[in-house]
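Let us practice reading a record.
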Amino acid sequence: MNRRWRAAPAVLLVALGLGCGEASLGPVPGTLEVVLADAPRPVGAVLFLIEGGTVDTVEGVGGYLDAAPYSGVAQQVLVAGNSLHGVIARVRVPDLRVHYEVVLQEVADDSSYALLDVAGPRLFLVASVP
């Protein structure tokens, strides 16, 4: 028997074994934390979008929160509270492997709720460790 044909079953078994690894597992549900950083002034309210995939639920951390679908492609979230900073919301998603992004739309001052320049503060997502 040809040497190439004797090795073919072994190569096929290895390929099938690799196909049964992590790549074939289903979705990995989890929680993303929305973090507010680098605000030059105290922030009292933040309006932002969560884009990239389906969102199961959104919950506020120490403040008022309201969320609704936005144009069928994102989730729009409003968080209001006293001197918002650090983790301001938790987002439960059906699959952490999907690339989610947060887009800052508006920021308001802590005392007057006057709109601030959105170029100052940063919002980013961090996977929450259970």
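A brief commentary: DSSP finds one helix and nine strands in the chain.
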